[in-house]
């Protein structure tokens, strides 16, 4: 499973569960967002900012009931992904045949950290694309002439106001070299 942490650590959002679990073992209905205080002991990884390993869930004293239709849970590892002192994501695996070991915890932690770096990079790229699109829209709509220049004073782009001032279309100006 993968959960994103929201609202300063007060709620979590289910981002992914294994397809096999959803198709084969789990038929519980649940909200994608829910308060952390309602989450089970697997979410102690968020509460403590440290990995949680439970190798005998059915007899664990901190066990909470699972929702109706939830996959049977025998054991699990849950790890936090940290940015500074803040937990930003939880990841985990469950129901390994043998007891989970420190090596298993390390493996899940490494995979979770890598997944978070990829997610953060994709979010940053999406934000940069949105910012660029917004800036392009402002430049196109500006009542003043705006030209962007590349290496060697080649015009990369020009808005309609610049085209009117310089004569020609924005596309024609894009082919000009001002050297």
Spell out the key features of this protein.
179 residues; single chain; six-stranded antiparallel beta sheet; 23% strand; alpha+beta; two-stranded antiparallel ribbon; 5 helices
Question: In percent, how helical is the residue content?
Answer: 25-40%
Q: What is the averaged pLDDT score? A: 84
Extended strand count: 8
Q: Could you say which overall geometry the principal axes of the C-alpha atoms support?
A: elongated
How widely separated are the two ends?
58 Å
Low-pLDDT ranges: none
Number of helices: 5
Q: Provide the structure class.
A: alpha+beta
Q: How large is the radius of gyration?
A: 26 Å
Beta-strand share of residues: 15-25%
Q: Order of strands across the widest beta sheet?
A: 3-2-1-6-5-4
Structural description of this entry:
With 179 residues, the protein is α+β, with helices and mostly antiparallel strands. The chain has helices at residues 19-25, 44-48, 102-141, 160-166, 170-173; strands at residues 2-6, 11-16, 33-35, 52-54, 76-83, 86-94, 147-149, 155-158. The strands form 2 sheets. Strands 3-2-1-6-5-4 form a 6-stranded antiparallel sheet. A two-stranded antiparallel ribbon has the order 7-8. The chain is elongated.
